[in-house]
Amino acid sequence: MGSHTANTHLVLASNSPRRRELFQLLHVPFVNRTAEIDETPLSGEDPAGMVRRLSLAKARAVATLSSGPALVIGSDTTVAFAGHVLGKPADAGEARRMLHELRGRAHDVHTGVSLVDTGSGRECVWSVTTVVWMRDYTTTELEDYIASGDPFDKAGAYSIQHPAFGPVARIAGCYTNVMGMPLCDLAARLADFGLQLNPHIPAACAAYTGHLCPLLPAVAQRPSDR
After folding, report:
1. Backbone angles phi, psi at 63, to 5 degrees
2. 3-class DSSP state for residue 68?
3. Mind listing the pLDDT tens digit for each residue in 99-122?
4. DSSP state of 208
């Protein structure tokens, strides 16, 4: 197991409010910082491979900006439906097309996460997939949601936790993964890097999301990637 001293900074390579809020549930001090990277998909790249690559690129880019020992966390999320990736919609028309495609159907949400330790050079990269079934929302509900402006910074043009639209019927897998950060997987890897974490993460996660996560006990017992 790795270990970290008190003067090692924890850096979240994201400005996403949702990721920052989720990260706060771990009860460890951190700062957030971003760096520009090229997020263009590569030809023939599968969605899970893409988010792993981009999460590592984000973490490495922020790691180069760190002046002292740091453990940098990068993350990237995408929606995959019918063999193609749905990114963030550029406008209302694109958001409308995405939400029409997804309505009443299942799709995959892939999040890639990377840890980069600037002191040791150690890196850990993985991805988590959640299957999401959308409900059969009405056209009026869809249009009201687009008018709210919420879809435009979301992969697949929706947020699972939106209180008014509530687009999701059910999921198989991690709820916070759909929000952009698989919290239980992240907790397991951070603990392996020697971080002392909030022991009440399942309860904190359930209180924040309103959904009891059944996955964390199994994830915590799983051998970490080396």
Report:
1. -60, -35
2. coil
3. 999 999 999 999 999 999 999 999
4. H
Tokens of 53: 């690559």
Is 171 buried (19+), middle (13-18) or exposed (0-12) by CB count in 10 A? middle
Which residue among the candidates 46, 76, 91, 153 is catalytic per the annotation?
Answer: 76
Q: Are strands 84-86 and 123-134 parallel, antiparallel or unpaired?
A: unpaired
CA 176, CA 156: separation in Å to the nearest integer? 15
Question: Does the active-site annotation cover 153?
Answer: no
Q: How confident is residue 7, by pLDDT bands cut at 50, 70 and 90?
A: low
Domains identified in the chain and CATH numbers: 9-221 (3.90.950.10)
CA atoms within 13 Å, Cβ hemisphere of 69? 9
What whole-number distance in Å separates Cα of residue 187 and Cα of residue 191?
6
